[in-house]
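#struct-pred

JT: dropping the chains for the assembly here, can someone run the whole complex?
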Amino acid sequence: VTDKPETIDPHWAWEAYEPTDKSPWNIKKVGHLYRRASFGATWSELEAGLKAGPEKTIARLLAGAAGLEAFDKHTAPLAKSISLANNGQQARAWWLYRMLYTPHPLLEKLTLFWHNHFATSNAKVNNAGYMLGQYELLKRNALGSVRTLLQEISKDPAMMVWLDTSLSKKGMPNENYARELMELFSLGIGNYTETDIREAARAFTGWEIEDGRAVFYKAKHDDAEKTVLNHKGNWEGADIVRICLEQESAPYFIAGKLYRFLVSETVPSSKELLAPLALELRNSDYDFGRLVRKVLSSNLFFSPVAYRTRVKAPVDFALGIVRGLEGRIGATALAQALEELGQNLFYPPSVKGWDGGQAWLNGQTLLLRQNLTLAFTSTEDQRFGRRADPAVLVHKYGKRSNADMVDFFLQLFLQGDVPQESCSKLMNYELDADRRNIPVYWTEQDAADQHVRSLCRLVLTLPEFQLD
Amino acid sequence: MRLFRYLGSCLICLALVSDLQATNASDPLLLIPDQADFCVKIEQPRGLVEALTDNSVIKQLLTLEAVREAYSSTNLRRLNQLIAYFEKELGLGRLEIIDRLAGEGIALGTKLGPKPMPLLLVIQGKDEQLLRRFSKLGLEVVEQELARRESKDRPQKGKHRGIETIHIGKGFHAAVAGSALVISNVEKALQMSLDLYVDKGKKNLANVENVADARKLADTGALAWMWLNLNNLHTASETKELFRLPRNDAAQTVLVGGLLDVAGRSPFVCGSLHRQEQGFAVRLRMPNGREGMPSELAAHVPPAGQPGSRPLLEPRGVMLSSSYYLDVSKFWEQRAKLFPEKQLKTLEEFDKNSQQFLAGNRFSKLLGLAGAYQRIVVAHQPTRAYQTAPAQAIPAFAAIIETRQPEEFSKKMEAILRATALLATTQVKLKLVEEKYKDFQIISYRFREDAKFKPDTGNLRFNFSPAFVTVGNQFVVSSTSELCHELVDLLAKESKESAGKGVACTVKTQLYGSGGSEFVAAFKDRLFTTAILDQAIPTESAEEQVGQFIALIQRLGVLRIEAAYGARDFCYELRLELKP
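RK: done, full complex below.
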């Protein structure tokens, strides 16, 4: 795997992947696609993906399965109740519930991408209704127009509190939003000046929140002339967003963020490598859905540059297990566990969001990941009970022998990406198990089920499972 | 901890699983050394299990999906399998096993202070032979479990005074002494217990006079009872301050000064659990009462011959009703004896300056005008005073204060409340409503629905329409005008029927399942959301579960809490009266 982006041909990189003898469409690629574009795959999704081929599988993921409208109808009253109670803890559980049981996981995954991009924390906003409102905005545009998203986020109540737009008045402009719009949301460092920020901040004055909505007060707005990024005029906030998106750096910045999210954290991108993606964005007037399709369908996405080159974020780690086990667990306890692992939804650590990559892993979080795995699979943890039981899963798919079960779990969770040595150890596990004492009051079925659960846990604690 | 969980399972088995030909009837307290400061004893283990398992509310609780799921969890299923295993191996049903292995009672004793705190559990059976078989089986199970979990700890056998002992790690020590199973977390404590058994020693809890008195006071029909030695607490450096006057914590003096005085003069406190016709009762008792209480604490106890508290007020949707005796004027009169010098100065300074914010009235004057009987009511009020629904429903609440000079007290309080309302109008728009209701003048304030109040994003203010009224010698301050009207009706009726009457206890509080369920029903959507997010269950199941939960709260009936100072005793009782 190269770590030099200049050695990658940009034309080849973003051309649609077509299976070849050298790079066939196999379960590894299906698993990879589901890890990046969903939260891991179930066994039936892996099998269906393998049969359907890349094009149809990607189309299926982009469109989502049937039932999204009914699912939205099911979760909307829950969101309303959480907003009324201003319960931030339940808000994060609500989103996890959606991620776990939605028929359109890609939409939730990209909403998570945008949540990390705009990194708004309820620690300051302190209003679950505003946070859920921002979630709706992100989801609505997750596969839509970046332009619309940037325009609407500028007037989003949660963002207005988070970056103090609601306090920005004529004569006392607050620079926070203008700064982050340029640095973190659209252009990146080096593509603007401090003067641009000061001038742009004046354009965002005059907005307040009333009854949960952004309201513009002309009298509080600085309507004098401003010069932002070499454009002179009596600009308002919407003009600043437009000017930012007109900058050459803007599509590169957004494509670069998506590259890191979907392709690789370890191989950095270059301007040349991102050029076709930036062009796609500009030509499509910032249609993010088209960009996502292009990346997911590309040669580079299915190449070793992308394959298992990310560290699983806690959400991907935990949901990958639950989805794989076809579990039906409660989201409240899961939200708490994810906070311990470092990813507290709706509470990112700073305006820059979560650092991601290797920062997810340290001695403590690794131990917590192992404990969570045990909690899911043992069926003895009162938080999750028997709701993600590996023994039920192997029974469903008719896996009986130790060899069958080892192979099943390795294919389901790792698509076979383990060293031979690990495989042999797992294969010998049954022999070791026979030598272990089983309490006299257990039934044979208890012992067999316990064996399956332990086996599954061993697979999930392999180092390879930490990679996305 | 896991080990203790398993041993706990074995003990629960014991508690759930005696030879009619008793061989060694005894009292488990005989094996607890007299150095113990605290003990709890289950006199009738089988009776306790039956009381719990036969209870209709517990049966109803078991029908809740969330509880059912917990009941069918891997751990509980294994526990049931373990019980079944013991039943099969011992050839007896679980209740019979309890009778034979714990029929003489279960006692837990401890000594406060040392670290780790020694705990000694004595399970006194009637059948030594059965106990030995049970212990052997239990030990085998524990060994297997430790092996399965690949624990480094293994049971180690030892001997003390010729009795075989079992030790697992540093925190588990056990032995069979005759027909008693003795378990402790400290080896020395186990050895002391075995010494008592071997020597037939007299220095045990059963021979402590204090404990025997506690047992008598706790009632003989108790399912379980406890004793706490207060003598050591009276002199222990961490707790002695609690029983002294004046004490540094003024809040303790004001809220529980009387109780602390009784505890300071009593050698022990005992508690007991009783099965009642329709529920359970827990009683805490001390062998001292109003006799001997210093005069400065008269704020907490009415003079002899006076009622302890006024009758409870029960408006519609009542969730909580409380009535108590607290003569607040006495705090001011006896301030020099009750509060330390520094606090006394602060209090007097506060009183001097109080005119500034009490509309020209001194705090001490108000205390003097207020009476000794007070009542508090919290109720779910289904009717709303406003069109605008608040984001969160807050139940209505009111305070009812009996006054010594009703006219003067009302005049002063009215001035204070009106001034407060006037001050509030600088922040939020309020409408004053003066209304003649029956023979009484109700003054209330309503928030203007057409006016915005930015800080109140959830419209919580629309839970309130603050009101006050004087009914005879009762001054009422209520969070809503609607509750105020109801209280006027109740107080007017009370003054006709039972003026000046009351009940003996100085604190009487009731929590009502019916009002509670009505209130919870107002939060149905929250419960529904919680059920789905916690359990990921379908909408229909969540709806059913919420309905079952509300019905269960209703069935909880009434929880009565009463505190009574007798001449030479004190009793605090919690009584749960379930709905049939």
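JT: nice. Chain A has 25 helices and four strands. Residues 35 and 468 of chain A are 6 Å apart (CA to CA).
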